[in-house]
Design brief:
5-stranded antiparallel β-sheet; 8 helices; 14% strand; 34% helix; elongated; alpha+beta; 3-stranded antiparallel β-sheet; single chain
């Protein structure tokens, strides 16, 4: 079973074949050394009994001595000078135990065995961890794909108009068709998750995947108003609402901003120039327990910010202890040996992984960006 598992890990690229061969060769050498020592011990024992002869064809074992702790052997003494003389037999007492016990392992053999087993276990654990990591990444990528399909379904039903990211004046309803704005704080209805819920079959647990999948169970125990607020604020994925769908906190739906910068965010599918590149959703994290307050870092936040807007929004260096340093994007998955990546969904429904450095390219965030370090500027008088 271990061999099959190791072969699977090698085929999947999580282990190098040389590592497995080295561990197996060490373990095999230990076994061979043990067998050689047993054979050498047996030969030495025979030489001790027969005076250098490897065997005696006329060896006769006699009944054991009365004390039971010794045994007797009888072998011929042949007159080498006269071959015709019959052999003279004699009885020799050989001191020893009637039942010999196998010699134990030496310290070197024991330590070598422990090292070999430790190497094999380390390889198996490493492979198991890699398999589990890949499985979690694949599961969350499937959730991201479902989210992209629901987002596209909204645009289809609204004649090409995309889902508003953060805006008032857009109704959100529950499974019974009742307005959500009257069931919880009004700010929750401004966020995209509750407006996208009908396209997820009102299965709010769909918004949770990866490390905060268990949070969906916790939300079910909350009162309706609190659970609706939590769903609106802390889904597993954040939306690129600044440049896709519009965000009231960043100039969206503001006549002043539109007159100054033009239509800087996408509000219709037909206006997207590179649907395979423009990001809609990304894995997210935050340390905001409520708007304006900070607390422990948690995975999941409704908004991800682009690297730049009218000014840079990301720090020069990503700080894992500060989610805002990368616009609340969460590189919570590992790819390869140590590469940390985030999962992103694009306008065309594609799902991929990207590092924080790869996501610093503004052309992946804004439909109007023409350079990686682009910053939004006024369109003129």
């Amino acid at each position: 079973m271990i061999i099959v598992y190791l072969q699977f890990a090698i085929d999947g690229g999580w282990l190098h074949r040389s590592e497995v061969i080295f561990a197996i060769s060490v373990f095999g050498e230990l076994i061979c050394t043990r067998r050689r020592r047993k054979r050498e011990t047996a030969r030495a024992h025979r030489r001790k009994i027969f005076g250098g002869q490897q065997s005696s064809p006329s060896l006769t074992f006699l009944p054991p001595c009365p004390n039971g702790s010794e045994f007797r052997v009888q072998f011929p003494l042949i007159d080498l000078m006269t071959a015709e003389n019959p052999p003279i037999t004699t009885t020799v007492y050989v001191i020893g135990r009637a039942r010999s016990r196998g010699r134990g392992f030496t310290i070197v053999e024991l330590m070598t065995g422990i090292a070999a087993v430790a190497i094999l276990l380390a390889l198996v654990i490493h492979a198991a961890t890699a398999v589990r990591t890949a499985s979690e990444r694949a599961s969350e990528m499937a959730s991201a794909r479902s989210l992209g399909i629901a987002w596209a379904g909204y645009a289809t039903d609204h004649r090409g108009a995309v889902l508003p990211g953060y805006a008032s004046g857009f109704e959100a309803v529950d499974a019974n068709g009742d307005s959500i704005a009257t069931q919880t704080v009004p700010i929750a209805a401004r966020r995209w998750p509750l407006r996208l819920a009908p396209y997820l079959g009102h299965n709010l647990a769909t918004l949770y995947s990866g490390p905060n999948r268990d949070y969906a169970t916790e939300i079910d125990t909350l009162p309706d108003d609190e659970s609706l607020y939590a769903v609106s604020a802390f889904p597993s994925f954040g939306m690129n609402s600044v440049f896709v769908g519009g965000d009231e906190n960043f100039g969206g739906y503001s006549n002043i901003f539109l007159e100054t910068f033009g239509r800087f965010y996408v509000d219709r599918l037909s206006s997207v120039q590179r649907p395979d590149r423009l990001i809609v959703f990304a894995t997210s994290r935050t340390n905001e327990s409520t708007p304006g307050s900070t607390g422990p870092i948690r995975e999941g936040f409704f908004r991800v910010l682009p690297p730049g807007w009218t000014l840079p929004l990301w720090a020069d260096e990503y700080d894992p202890a500060d989610p805002a340093s990368a616009g609340f994007v969460s590189p919570r998955h590992r790819q390869g040996e140590s590469e940390e990546v985030a999962i992103v969904t694009t306008v065309d429904g594609g799902v991929s992984t990207s590092t924080i450095d790869e996501l610093r390219d503004l052309r992946r965030w804004s439909n109007a960006a023409n350079a990686a370090d682009w910053v939004m500027a006024p369109i003129g008088p």
